[in-house]
Amino acid sequence: MTAPIIHICGWPGSGKATIGRALATHLNGRLIDNHLMLDPASALYGRDEPEHAALRAAVREAIFAAARDLPDHVALVMTDALADSDADKALFAPTQKLAHDRGADLLPITLEIDAVENRKRLTDPTRQARSKLMDASVLAELRAKHRLLRPSGAITVDVTALEPNAAALAILKLLPAEMSA
Asked: What are φ and ψ of residue 172, in 5° steps?
């Protein structure tokens, strides 16, 4: 059986990458964090420039092509901050295709987090070294204007009071036995 693909969606600062890293470790899998695709494009172009989206798509395709060829026993944990919009559903489609191409079950996880805790985590100084969003006003605007993407079958996990490893363990408990074997 092919190992699962777990897709973690949450607001900036919700702990997607840290939880994803812990989850990938528990599964002996690989983490494909959204910043693998976002950061190279952001290093060269502004987010409003068309070249940003084009480079991000090219990097995504290269990463996903390599992921398709990984051995079946390798679980994949993927992260994104996607809204419930047509544009972001299109950004989720390659993940669905990757799961299909690998013959893997796809488990979408949506992280919930209290706005106060989200702001606290977003403004943590350790995020600066990782080129992460730290502007609380941008987060507030995102939360006010958008809803997180919740693909069909998505499971919501409230991480407000959970440390990253505890959140990863909570997600592991949600996996059907055949997915975590």
From this structure: -55, -40
Check: CB of residue 74 under 8 Å from CB of residue 29: yes
Q: Per the structure block, which two tokens stand in for 119?
A: 């702001």
Contact present, 5 and 142 (Cβ < 8 Å) = no
- The β-bridge partners of 157 are 111
Residue 3 burial by Cβ neighbours in a 10 Å radius (0-12, 13-18, 19+): buried
Alpha helices by DSSP H, 45-123: 50-68, 86-102, 115-122
0.90 exceeded by pTM = yes
Consecutive sets of 10 residues in the chain, 181 residues long: mean pLDDT of each?
Answer: 96 97 97 94 94 96 97 98 96 97 97 98 90 94 98 97 98 80 53
**Residue 73: which H helix or E strand, with range?**
none
